[in-house]
Description:
With 185 residues, this protein is mainly β. Helix content is 0%, strand content 48%.
Amino acid sequence: MPAVALPDGSAHLIGTDRDVRFGAEVESLAWSPDGSRLVAGCKDNSARVWDVRTRSSADVLRGHADWVGALVWSPSGRYLASGSDDRTVRVWDIEHPGDTTIHSGHQNYVDGISWAPDESRIATCSADWTIRVWDLTGTNQPRVLTGHESVSVRWHGLATASASRPAPTTARYGSGAARTTTKVR
Length: 185
């Protein structure tokens, strides 16, 4: 079901007569993979999780120092990644909301985030024209791809039961340029 953020701090669930009131001006929205939760990135520096089944607030995730403009759930729905104008990315464990990891290094606001299908890495893009690929299983040092005037990044590849990792691709868009992809290994 589509949702649209409204200027009054709510989101309208399209195809229904329901609105979700988040209590802060909404900058971004993301549905959980199972559709049971809707999260809003807000201009009060929080990510607010709404439980659609109970029609109530499930959690308010605080920690960013500026607007939350990028959100994405992990494929399993256990984790949520949020990107902010504070130049950081946070990965929240929704089952244990106090558990969060902070990834910093971008020199400008974070535009987009994408999870690897196996949830071992995330790719982020920023207004600093870089894409960073963060290994969530170990080192906090990202692989940095420069020269990408991007506002969106998406992981490509199917999760497999084997130990092999899917090959991600990131798309570069900018100044009317044609679509370019960069493979990250």
